Structure formats: structure tokens, C-alpha cells
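Field notebook, page 754. I keep forgetting to write these up properly, so this time I am using the form the group agreed on. The chain and the ligand, MGD, are recorded exactly as supplied. Prediction of the bound pose follows.
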Amino acid sequence: MPHQKRSLDNSHPTTESSPSAGGGLPVIQYWVEKTLSPTGLQLWQTLNHKSACLSCAWGTGGQNGGFVNEAGEYLQRCAKSVEAIAAELQPGIKPDFFQTYSLSQLQQLTSQECDRLGRLSYPVILRSGSSHYERISWAEVYQIATRAFSLPPERIASYSSGRSANEAGFLWQLLMRSLGSNNLADCADLCHAPSTVGLKNVFGSGTSMVSLESLKHSDCVVLIGSNAPANHPRLMNELIQLRDRGGKVIIINPQIEIGLVKFGSPAFPIKSFLKGGSDISSLYLQLLPGSDVALFVGLQKSLIEQNLIKTAYLHAYTQNWQAVLDYARNISWDAITSTCGLSQEEITATAYMIGTSERVVFAWAMGITQQANGVDNVFSIANTALITGNAGKLGAGTMPIRGHSNVQGFGSMGVNPNLRAEIKQALSQLLGKPLSETPGYHTRHLIDAAELGKIDTLFCLGGNLYAANPNLQQAQRALSQIETVFYVATKPNLGHFHGLGKYQTLILPVFNRFENPHKTTTESGNNFVRLNDEGKSHLQAPDADLISEIELITEIAQRLHGDAPINWRKLQDTAYIRELIAKTIPGYQKIGEIDQNKQEFVIEGRIFTEPKFPTADGKAQMFVTDLPPLSLPTKAALGMAENQSGIMVILGTGRSYGQHNTVVYRQADKYRGMPHRHCILMNSLDMQKAGFQPQQRVTVRGDAGELPNIEVIPGAIREGVAFMFYPEANVLFTAKIDPQSGTPAYKRVPVWVY
Ligand SMILES: Nc1nc2c(c(=O)[nH]1)N[C@H]1C(S)=C(S)[C@@H](COP(=O)(O)OP(=O)(O)OC[C@H]3O[C@@H](n4cnc5c(=O)[nH]c(N)nc54)[C@H](O)[C@@H]3O)O[C@H]1N2
Ligand SMILES: Nc1nc2c(c(=O)[nH]1)N[C@H]1C(S)=C(S)[C@@H](COP(=O)(O)OP(=O)(O)OC[C@H]3O[C@@H](n4cnc5c(=O)[nH]c(N)nc54)[C@H](O)[C@@H]3O)O[C@H]1N2
Ligand code: SF4
Ligand SMILES: [Mo]
């Protein structure tokens, strides 16, 4: 893996001290640097463009201007948003670039270096046996695509990542269904799939039941497995305001994330500058990774013991509550505390805080979903919310914090292997034929099927399928079995140079959200639909030759199907796509009028302020969640000799403060005191046990591979637990997969460090 070794050469000084609050001054400094730079004006204009922020699903921006959130509050853009836009405003890659640099040279680049090459601005192809990508015309792209998509439906597949608009997502899945394929893998499979599966089973609806407005009425937020200060910075404003009105914030995380203790937000400049930030956590529970079910069952047990459960509510609005209560009653405190590593006193105090609050929101992210029992995690949180009567009222409920800015919209548009029955019926009417009943591949199935040579054509609508998966070696092998791979993207990434197809790999450049020549829409994690205005790209002919995703998809479809039963080219008018969405996607009726009235809206049937749920009997369905059997493999299972020194730790992989998923923007993570990408954050006691000094170089070994020359950084992480950055760490392990959702357990990876 050359890109892993490469940046080890840039040894960074490690004297920089970590800040005492998240956000705050470093963030403001970043803003100033960027907006005063030579491209500062362009950046300002783009920040003010009427479109949703590209970065996370908190959903800032839209028709009221780039800085306004869903509640109409101003000053809501974070540094991450600036970072994302700055990357999109880079110059285009020069016309002779791919002639000059060979594939093997491109394979030496790190993630950050790939991104810094600039914007993709003309289509290129790598043919097998060739040493260089070469430019091709769109006409040739369409010829190749027409052939590649004429293959049997079970041999074609796609993967998508939620930065594209609803319209592109809707069209893409419509094209795949029309071809008879359900192979619509999506980044959500690696992300919040357990939330969707879990919540759908419990409440009949797979998304957050809390709107931003409702969150403002909460008096307690339980934030579980989320590093919101880095990944959803504007959510922090809500937590600051909640603390100001006397509310409580309970954090559940094996790692102390500094911004969850104290956070400086530019929305509250006085506090940030004078007081060094606002207090966030009222309680901070450092549990063992993967043990959240044990903690939540413990909370349920303690709520019962303290007589803080809402029995009348359970009777009236839920099913199977007796079984859930019985399980909690009967399990021993010992089993609970030894699994989660927290004391009975800590759990009791937390249960009291939850049970005595009026309106509790339970919010979570990847610490909950990226586990071998991700769906059970979600069930156990939902059970706790229900036992305390905190679902279906203002200021309370379950709230998965979504990742990519439009990943939830892609789910709503039907970009997934399992289509909801209502959508299926509507689409089959639209296409004038029944849809295929063959189950589709989600992301992990797709990789496994490809490795077995079962896929010939793969279309990647954004994302980085290669680097996002565990076991990069397998991902690379799998992709190399696919005849034709299309990467539709705005900027180059590792996957474009390492995830190569068998006969041909194409990289197709497209406009981003604020450049499209037509209006589009996106959906935030809070179920709010944004309207994005048309825009203009700084990349211009003759050097640049980009198209919109809509044009690309409709042109392929037109060539495959002609005009019947759908006039695909007519769909290049996105208002027409929105008409179809209004007719086929539940809750999206209002999108049919958005072109006329410009009214952004909350999707119908998702926000619950009454305890009536869209399940068969209108009640929430509760499920018993068994405590997870958390064991560690033997040293030998990781290929280590019995006398090998070192230590076994549970590695959690995740994001630094300077990256967006597989794309690295900055090498250092100041907040965790990690000066570069090749660090492992460990507890000092573990370091002592293993005989490691701070800044010592070690090797980290998992079940799929090892990374040498990794710097040990002492940090505020629980004993027995360690943290590294992805995607680099994805060479290390194969990951357990949650059988109920297909999501990999990226947050609980046993490794040997020596
Ligand atoms: N700046 C930035 N913003 C982003 C992204 C980005 O890469 N960069 N990515 C976007 C995407 S797609 C997503 S999905 C989100 C991700 O947002 P998050 O989910 O906040 O990000 P992660 O870094 O994956 O880590 C989540 C937290 O889970 C904790 N954790 C690990 N194991 C456990 C456990 O067993 N239990 C509990 N309770 N906690 C645990 C980790 O210590 C970490 O603090 O962010 C979105 N926003
Ligand atoms: N070890 C480990 N692995 C993980 C995770 C983890 O926590 N730990 N997290 C997982 C999660 S939560 C996720 S969501 C996945 C992320 O997986 P992906 O979504 O597959 O990856 P990204 O890095 O977000 O994709 C970035 C690329 O998207 C392209 N892009 C950006 N904007 C646009 C656009 O407007 N249109 C198009 N077509 N392309 C665009 C750019 O080319 C950019 O390089 O990774 C997963 N993998
Ligand atoms: S919190 Fe998310 S949506 Fe809001 S400005 Fe920051 S990155 Fe954009
Ligand atoms: Mo994600």
C-alpha cells in the first residue's frame, strides 16, 4: 500500500499542545485564513449560494441563504463547510495531466494529495494493460456504458454516496430498476443502516423522529457514540443552548472527545473568546467499545429499580414491553457492569438523570451503528426511550445523526437493495412492468460477490468504495474482478487509482451541488427538504468538459431504453423529476410544488410529537436485546508468536478533525494531539503495561494486515481501547458484520500492538 507508507516521511513536530476546548479559536482562525485567501471572494459567494451545505447532514443552508439553519437562525456555517467548498473551488486538473503522470505514480499519492490534484474536469479511461489514464469523449463514454449496462441485470451493480441530489438518486435507482437490478449498494450500508433497520422495526419509520424545532424543547440530550464537535459542528449550538436553559447532556463514548466536554462556537463568540468555550457534558460515561446494549439494559434495570418507568405509556403505546422489562429485571448487575465496564453507581446516576428529565432526546452516530450488534444497539436505545415515555412528544425522541449531506435523501429516493412496498408499487406502475424480486446486494455483499467474479459492471455515483471498506486488500481484489468500473466524481480519490476494474476504469467528472445548471433538492437528517438553486462552475471549456449527474444518467438511460415508457431526456428538466418523486415517494408530496412556491418542507410522517407510530397496530414494537458476548481473539489468531511482547487493544477507527470520510484535508488532529495520520491513541496505563514511551513507533497488527511505524500518542481513552484514523486503518482488519444490517464493526477491531 504505497499511500500508507508515503506520508510517514513527513514527520511532524509533536510539541503542539492540544486545545482545551473543541471548536473555538482554531476554527475561527481557519475561517479567516480561508476566506481572506486569493479565492476568498469566490468562497464567500459560494457560502452565500442558496443551496444546502455539501458536508454533513445537519443541513445548514438553502433558500434563506447559506448561513441559515432549519429553524431560520443565522450564522450557522462551520469550518468544515468552508473546507468542503474550498476543495470544490480548486482549479481543474490540467489537460495534459494524465498523459504526464502514470498510474504507478498516481498510486504513490496519499488521500490528501489525490484531493489536491484539483477538480476532475474531463472524462478519462484506464484500459487494461495501459500505464496511463487517457482522455475520452462523452460519446465514447456513452458507447461503453450502453454495452456495459446491456449485460444481465444480476451482473450489474452500483454504489453511491450521499453527496448527490435527490433527483440524481431517484433517476439512478429508476434506471437500475428498469434494467431489472436491485443491486443498489450505498454508503449508508457502512454507516447508519442499523438505525434505519432498527427504527423501522420499532416505530415503522427509519429516520429521526425529532425536528430541529423539537430538539429546542428538550431538557436532556443523551449523545451516544458521536463526535459531533468534529462531524456535526452546528449540532453543538443546540447543546450549548440546552445547557444554558438548565438542561443536561449525557455523553456515552469510550474516548473523551474534548469538544464534548467544552466547545467554542462562533455562534456564541463572547463565550468562545472570554470563557474558552461552553460546558457541554453533564455526565461523561466512558464505556467499553461495543457494550452499549449492556449499558442501556443497565439503565432500564435501574429505571425499574428507581421506579422511574412510565407504565401507563407502555400499556397504551407499545408492544412487548413486558418481555423487555423482564429481561432487564432478571439480568444481574454483575453481567451488566462487567460487560460495559461502568459501575452500578454510574449507571444509577445516569438513569436518575434521564428518568427525572421531562423531555429526553437520544441521539447517536457511528459508535452505535458500526458494531456487530448495531441494530440491537438501536433497539436498546429505543427501549430506553419508550420505558421513560420519551418517544412521540415535543422535545423528545430518537435521533440518529446522519453522515453525508444527502445520504438520507438517497434512502428516501429508494437507493437501496430493499425497496419499500409502496415505492415498489408506484415505480412498477411508472415503468409499466413488475420490478425484479431478486434481492439486491448491499455494500458488503457487493464486495463479496465481485470477489467471486459475479459482477461485470459497476457504476459508482460518488464516494470511494475501495477505501471505505474494511480489508482494503479484499476490496482491491474484488474490484479487479469487475470488467468495467465507472467512477462519477468531482475530485480524484484513492479509489480511482487503487480500485481498478478488470478491463476498463472510467472517471467521469460532474458538477457539484452549487454548480448544477438546474435546481435540485436534498434531505437533512432532521427530515427537512432543501431546495438548491442552479449555479455555475468556475471550470470552463475548452479545458473543462463536465456535465451534470442528471445529464449523465438520462443520456445513458435514453440510449438503453429510448422514450418508452419514460421520456428520459425530458427528465433533464429536474422539475419533471420532482413531479415523479411527488407521485412515488411517501411523504414527499410537497416537492411537486417546490418549483412554484420555493417552500422547503418537513417530510410528512417522520416527526412524531404524539405517541402514534406508523406500524401495523400504531404502537411501538419493543425487542429484547441480549448483552453482546464481547471477547478478544488470542494472540495466535492475529498471527503473533506466544513470546511476542506488546499488548492487545480494542481499536476504534474513525475520523480526525481534518478529514471528510476517505478524503483527508489536514494531516494533524490538534484536538486529540495526533500530529499526523500514522498515530495510535492509547491509554497511558496500557502504554506502561506494554513498555511503550510516548511518540515511540510501533507496529499495529489486525486479522487482515499490519501497519508498521505508527506513533503512540497517550490520550484520554479508556484502558484497553485505542483509536486510529480511517481509511488508513482499513488495511488492518476484516471486520465483523452486523447480520441484521450488513454494517461492519469498524468500532471494535481487536489488534495487537508491538
Ligand atoms: N468533519 C467531518 N464531518 C463528517 C464526516 C467526516 O469524515 N468529517 N463524515 C460524515 C459521515 S459520513 C458520518 S457517518 C458522520 C460520522 O460522525 P461520528 O459518528 O461522530 O464519527 P466517528 O469518528 O465515526 O466516531 C464516532 C464516535 O464514536 C465513538 N465510539 C467508538 N466506539 C464506541 C462504542 O462502542 N460506543 C460508543 N457509545 N461510542 C463509541 C468514538 O470514540 C467517536 O467519538 O460524520 C459526518 N460528518
Ligand atoms: N474504518 C472505517 N471505515 C469507514 C468508516 C469508519 O468510521 N471507519 N465510516 C464509514 C462511513 S460512515 C461512510 S459514510 C463511508 C464513506 O464512504 P464514501 O461515501 O464512499 O466515501 P467519501 O470519502 O465520502 O467519498 C468521497 C468522494 O466523493 C466524491 N464526491 C464528492 N462530491 C460529489 C458529488 O457531488 N457528486 C459525485 N458524484 N461525487 C462526489 C469525491 O470524488 C470524493 O473523493 O466510509 C465508511 N468506512
Ligand atoms: S454542521 Fe454540517 S451542515 Fe452545518 S455548516 Fe457544518 S458541515 Fe455544513
Ligand atoms: Mo457515514
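OBSERVATIONS:
- The two ends are 20 Å apart (CA to CA).
- The longest helix spans residues 166-179.
FOLLOW-UP: compare against the apo run.
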